[in-house]
Model the fold of this input.
Amino acid sequence: MWNCQTHANHGCISESRHDRLVTKGITSLSDPPNIISRAEARALGLKRYFTGKPCQRGHVAERGVISLDCVECVRTRRVANLAKARERERERARKYRAADPGRVRENWRRWAAKRRAARTASELNGAGRPGAAEGIHQT
Done:
């Protein structure tokens, strides 16, 4: 995120969003309140607008021009879905490991052998030497 004096009321907006606003002739969003209707935002080619009115869940935040969703509701929903997806993946992995433990062990052995070989090869190439990362060669 990027801080801009022109858009002081927004504190942190992305540099690309700042550029889009400035090129569209919007040089100040700091005139309280920063209300812009959906129609105006759409006409200016913006992705979000702000009415100053709370959403169904009580958030007073920007909304998407296309989806009409409040950005706080979207963020909350994304976090909740991410947690659910992680738990689904953990459960899937548990079932996979329980269904065929021999295959899991064999996959682990193959992976560990490949890592050992890669580590040995990198040490032979001098990656383990002090200064090797900087490209300093001692002869």
